[in-house]
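Structure in, sequence out. Go:
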């Protein structure tokens, strides 16, 4: 196991130190599977800027170290802006030690192509490394594949404050789990704080009678699968005189993502649906800066007037971004058309009686057909 003793440049008072634990920044993430390309481009810049803001927060709060527990990047292809900004953050804050442990998305090192690594950037590898910083021992090992004896060599001393950094999925029995971390192998090892990355929602729990484990979660939500809770980082405070460590979550996201479901059953016009959706969005606590996925549900009359594009543009004027997903179903009651001798009634009876069509297909055909018979252009599904 490699080890090094660091002299923390930041001010220390009675061997006290503040640290930040963050993870899963996913810089340069495409994000186009969730949001429009132009908005995704802007969001990539916002996420990079938020990392800068976190470093500025650290400098203002006299934080001595920032622990990045994996997935700083999203893909092997990183922009020159991202690399230069990160290196500027590190080199322009010599009073902060940056501990960077790569995750499953970090295929390339931040320092690749550099003649010299910044002196305050600490890296880990596929063997255990240990750094001593401000009276705190910081251990880490990159978990790229399952290896026998992975936890061998991790032996923190009982009289020190010990932090272990790992990136993966914790489990009691991780066999077969991608990037599995065996909690039972880490218990009773004198660990005070297990700093984890890989899961994008903040969570924590007891490791054993001495320490805790914690996922800081991602710094910013990138898609509507990351709507649960606030996003940010963990702020740790240590005191080597009393061998104590405390932690608290700091919400730090620039924008919240919300997935909101609106029941528009019975609405006959787009404006009625907008009113129902507005009530649901307000009830969900969305702000003007929010990104929203609005899901429309419920049963609608086939003759209703519905324009999803108009709804999206209406909410886009008030919120940073709004994507509308139409999951409504057409309410087709055959009895309403049994005695209708018009072309409309004949059309609905023929479609409803076609056993080769699913109910969803029937609803879609009836909707388009009734719109066409009424001389209107049906909205695109």
């Amino acid at each position: 196991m490699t080890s090094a003793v660091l002299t923390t440049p930041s001010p220390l008072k009675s061997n006290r130190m503040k640290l930040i634990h963050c993870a899963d920044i996913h810089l340069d993430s495409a994000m186009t599977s969730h949001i429009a390309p132009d908005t995704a481009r802007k969001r990539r810049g916002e996420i990079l800027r938020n990392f800068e803001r976190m470093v500025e927060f650290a400098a203002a709060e006299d934080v001595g170290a920032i622990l990045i527990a994996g997935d700083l990047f999203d893909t092997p292809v990183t922009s020159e802006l991202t690399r230069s900004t990160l290196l500027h953050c590190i080199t322009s804050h010599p009073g902060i030690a940056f501990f960077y442990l790569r995750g499953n998305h970090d295929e390339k090192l931040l320092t690749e192509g550099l003649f010299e690594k910044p002196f305050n950037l600490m890296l880990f590898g596929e063997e255990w490394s240990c750094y001593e910083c401000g009276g705190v021992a910081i251990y880490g090992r990159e978990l790229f594949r399952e290896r026998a004896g992975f936890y061998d060599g991790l032996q923190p001393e009982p009289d020190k404050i010990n932090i272990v950094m790992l990136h993966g999925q914790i489990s009691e029995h991780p066999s077969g789990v991608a990037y599995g971390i065996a909690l039972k192998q880490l218990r009773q090892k004198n660990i005070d704080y297990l700093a984890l990355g890989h899961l994008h929602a903040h969570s924590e729990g007891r490791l054993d009678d001495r320490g805790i484990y914690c996922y800081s979660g991602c710094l910013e939500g990138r898609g509507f699968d990351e709507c649960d809770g606030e996003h940010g980082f963990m702020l740790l405070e240590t005191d080597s005189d009393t061998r104590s460590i405390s932690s608290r979550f700091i919400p730090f996201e620039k924008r919240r993502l919300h997935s909101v479901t609106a029941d528009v059953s019975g609405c006959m016009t787009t404006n009625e649906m907008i009113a129902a959706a507005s009530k649901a969005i307000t009830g969900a606590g969305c702000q003007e800066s929010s990104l929203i996925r609005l899901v429309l549900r419920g049963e609608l009359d086939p003759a209703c007037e519905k324009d999803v594009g108009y709804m999206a543009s209406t909410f886009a004027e008030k919120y940073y971004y709004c994507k509308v997903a139409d999951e409504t179903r057409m309410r087709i009651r055959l009895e309403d058309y049994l005695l209708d001798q018009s072309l409309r009634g004949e059309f609905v009876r023929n479609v409803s009686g076609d056993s080769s069509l699913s109910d969803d297909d029937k609803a879609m055909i009836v909707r388009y057909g009734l719109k066409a018979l009424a001389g209107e252009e049906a909205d695109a599904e």
